[in-house]
Structures are given as C-alpha cells and as structure tokens.
Design goal:
With 209 residues, the protein is mainly α. It contains ten helices and no strands. The longest helix has 37 residues. The two termini are 40 Å apart.
Amino acid sequence: MSSNAGSAEAREGGPVIRWTPLVERIRSGDDNAVQELYAKLSAGMRILTCRRLGAQDVHDRIHDVFIIVLNAIRSGSLREPEALAGFALAVLRNHIAACIGERRKSREQTSGTTALDDIAHHQHSPEDVLLNQERTDIAHRALKRLRPRDREILTRFYLQGQTEDRICEEMHLTSTQFRLVKSRAKAAFGEIGGRMIRRRPVANRVSGG
C-alpha cells in the first residue's frame, strides 16, 4: 500500500487526494463519506494484506483496520486530517505485525504439544527413537513448570490414558471445567515446550547439523 493508502491515481501520477474535506464530512455524520473513505483505502489495504498474510480473511482484516481508522477520525484522535493516509498505513502495519506474531506463537505451541503427543505414542525407526527421546525429555521438563492441577490433568489424560469421566470424578471437576483447564494447560505446555525446542533444535542434532 502506498502512502496514499490505496489511491490508484496517486500511484499513477494523478492528483493527490485531499483528505480534510472527507474527514470533516465524516465528523459531521455523513455516512456517504464513510463509504467513500472505505473505497479509497480498501484497495491498497487489500494489496498489502494479501502480500504479507495471504488472501484468507482479508475482508475481515481490512474491516478491523478500517474501524480503527474511522474511530480515530470520529473521536478526534486524528488531529491532522492530511496525515490520514500515513495513519491508516501505520494501523495496517501494526495489525499485520500482530497477526504474524500470533501465527508464530501458534506454530511454537504446536511444536511444543508435539512433544506431549510423542510421549503417548511409540516410535519405531532409529530416527523416531532419537526424536522421541529428545521430545520426551523436553515434555517432562515442560510439565514440571506447569501449575500442579494443570500438570496432573495433562499427565493423567495424555500419559496415563485416563478417561475424562474418571478424571472429572476424582478431581471433582465438571466436564466444562475439565475442558477449560485442559485447554489452558495444553496451551501453556505448548508455549513452554516450544521455547525449549527452539533452544535445542531436535531435527538438527538428529541429522548431525
């Protein structure tokens, strides 16, 4: 997205958009001005968002960013109307950075929970054995860092193979409480395990890298 936040005319050498009149109309409650603003910003937002995050959910992402920009205009937070394009670009970049951070965190948690899954399943090839030993060590150390109740639920459910009904009965939990605690515990475990895996790259050591 260019500094004109989606203005095709400006990118092609056409007239530069004057934002002040449009901002003033929005502040006066003109709904048509809101639609005009969206039309001017959305094209550039779509290009940059797709380039950095892909096309999935692009319309929702653009809408979220647009609402932030619109609220800034209506609340008076945008003190310089002619800086609107740069402000919209900054908001979009922050949104993209946050999305990338969430994706990275999700991948790390997935890597961490793989260690827990590995303990509960037998591996057979020599490489699998080495991977399993490494991840088992990581998993046990990650489990020790959890809260006692979180650790107990993950241990009983994943490692000892106990049923949800038995765990709920013996730990005095409802089914809803069990699912919430297990979900929270698994997320915490994944985050801790992911950090450990990043510090000790399993695949590199197995391959001799």
